[in-house]
């Protein structure tokens, strides 16, 4: 299974796989392999699913002798057929899987005939998978430098993870290259099976963001005189989320209809998503520091906050672009870690800074006996704590899922991993919208300043000056006791 996990699992995210000089690389014993694609394909009665190849040409390597003939196999198989590929051989106490018949081999086929040296080995047929895997054999004659393969049309009648490999056991084809393309189609369109659920999911998420935006806009308009800066940030996050999910929906819809990934649309969706996540982290951190409630500005911390947000934006963009626009499965483990680790470290710094700031803010508000603000921040802290706990549990589950399913046996559930984070972010945003919703009492939670025993206006209605003293007044729903004079 190691060969399948490391080679067969490295596919591009496209229904149309193009081969531009893909080389037959040595794998294992005498086997040469070029990956033609890997997709989850669904089968539904009355609807068409298939794997087709078009204009596939094999060319011998330059400088290689063409005075010998060679055989090329185009093998289409499902994950369930993997055990039929090759034969297990035990030699010197070590068990290995051989894919090519060698001169010292002693295997016989189903009819008792010895295998021929250079023959591709396939195991006994599976009664439950009659006719699989599909092995199409093409022979290049001595003196020929090119082999034009016949276009293939393989109908898919059973849902599964399917692979297309170009294989050869002939040394005469060392370094040969493959050009052409293959097209993979699901019953509902060209969107790969692992990604197909994303189309309706982002349709639903677009509707949810539009509904949230409409409600927020209504409340925002009714209480526009009481709006504070934090609520402007919330509006921006909602707008970015709304546009992002709509663009993702259009991206997947076009992909499903044409079979080609529209890179520009995908890039726009990626940029919007990273901006939304960055602004959301800035919003949560700023609120945790008491911005607009405990302090009028972030003061000396502003540069540090912006630097952390900028670093997150940079690394998250790099990771998302590599994941969605590149064949991320082709990357070695070191490169993956170079992209994932910085984002994880920055997220950990955000979490640590958020809870440290919340602790200080709660202490400040509690010491000044601002009970309404204290309740507000307690509710906010509980919401963030629950979000972090749920996220940690999901991360553990996702790590287990990926480690235990390295060859995508459960590929139909793969979309849930990404959908979970979108839904969790939306629910957290709804919670923040509820806690910091515009209202006639909302300004009572805002920071105000006092100078020379004269009450100054709140930041939402006046200007803050650096020589003013930070205090807290206007407790929500609680009248202030009159000041006593001696």
Keyword list:
8 helices, disordered N terminus, elongated, single chain, disordered C terminus, 5-stranded antiparallel beta sheet, 486 residues, 19% strand
Characterise this structure.
The structure is a single chain. By secondary structure, the chain is an alpha+beta fold. 42% of the residues lie in helices and 19% in strands. It is built from eight helices and 15 strands. It has helices at 2-8, 198-222, 229-258, 263-288, 302-325, 333-367, 371-404, 414-435; strands at residues 16-23, 25-27, 31-41, 50-59, 70-78, 87-91, 94-98, 134-140, 146-148, 153-155, 160-168, 177-185, 448-451, 454-458, 469-471. The strands form four sheets. Strands 1, 4, 9, 10 and 12 form a five-stranded antiparallel beta sheet that branches. Strands 2-3-11-5-8 form a five-stranded antiparallel beta sheet, with helices on one face. A three-stranded antiparallel beta sheet has the order 14-13-15, with no helix packed on it. Helix 2 runs antiparallel to helix 3, helix 4 runs antiparallel to helix 5 and helix 7 (371-404) packs antiparallel against helix 8 (414-435). The model is unreliable at 1-13, 327-333 and 448-486 (pLDDT under 50).
């Amino acid at each position: 299974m190691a060969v399948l996990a490391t080679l067969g699992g490295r596919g591009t995210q496209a229904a149309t796989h193009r081969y531009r000089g893909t080389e037959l690389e040595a794998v294992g014993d005498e086997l040469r392999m070029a990956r033609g694609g890997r997709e989850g394909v669904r089968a539904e009665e009355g609807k068409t699913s298939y794997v087709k190849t078009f204009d596939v040409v094999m060319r011998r390597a330059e400088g290689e002798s063409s005075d010998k003939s060679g055989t090329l196999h185009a093998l289409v198989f499902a994950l369930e057929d993997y055990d039929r590929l090759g034969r297990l051989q035990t030699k010197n106490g070590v068990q290995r899987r051989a894919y090519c018949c060698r001169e010292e081999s002693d295997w016989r086929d189903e009819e008792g005939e010895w295998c021929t040296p250079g023959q591709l080995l396939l195991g006994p047929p599976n009664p439950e998978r009659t006719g699989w895997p599909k092995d199409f054999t093409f022979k290049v004659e001595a003196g020929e430098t090119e082999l034009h393969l016949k276009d293939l049309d393989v109908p898919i009648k059973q849902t599964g993870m399917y692979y297309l490999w170009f294989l050869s056991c002939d040394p005469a084809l060392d370094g040969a290259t493959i050009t052409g393309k293959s097209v993979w189609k699901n019953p509902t369109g060209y969107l790969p099976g692992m990604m197909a659920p994303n189309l309706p999911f982002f349709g639903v998420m677009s509707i949810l963001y539009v509904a949230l935006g409409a409600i927020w806009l209504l409340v925002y308009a009714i209480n526009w005189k009481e709006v504070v800066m934090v609520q402007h940030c919330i509006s921006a996050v909602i707008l970015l989320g709304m546009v992002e999910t709509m663009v993702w929906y259009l991206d997947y819809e076009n992909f499903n209809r044409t079979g080609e990934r529209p890179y520009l649309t995908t890039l726009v969706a990626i940029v919007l998503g990273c901006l939304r996540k960055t602004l959301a982290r800035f919003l949560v951190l700023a609120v945790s520091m008491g911005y607009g409630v405990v302090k009028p500005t972030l003061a000396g911390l502003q540069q540090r906050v912006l630097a952390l947000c900028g670093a997150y934006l940079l690394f998250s963009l790099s990771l998302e672009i590599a994941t969605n626009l590149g064949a991320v499965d082709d990357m070695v483990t070191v490169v993956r870690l170079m992209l994932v680790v910085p984002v994880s470290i920055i997220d950990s710094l955000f979490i640590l800074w958020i809870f440290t700031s919340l602790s200080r803010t709660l202490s400040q508000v509690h010491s000044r006996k601002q009970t309404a603000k204290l309740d507000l921040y307690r509710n906010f802290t509980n919401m963030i704590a629950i979000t972090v706990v749920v996220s940690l549990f999901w991360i553990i589950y996702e790590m287990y899922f990926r480690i235990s399913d390295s060859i995508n046996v459960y590929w139909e559930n793969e979309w849930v991993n990404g959908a979970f984070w979108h839904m969790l972010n939306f629910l957290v945003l709804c919670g923040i919208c509820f806690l910091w919703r515009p209202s006639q009492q909302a300004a009572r939670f805002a920071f105000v300043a006092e100078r020379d025993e004269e009450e100054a206006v709140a930041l939402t209605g006046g200007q803050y000056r650096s020589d003013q003293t930070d205090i807290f007044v206007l407790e929500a729903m609680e009248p202030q006791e009159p000041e006593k004079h001696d």
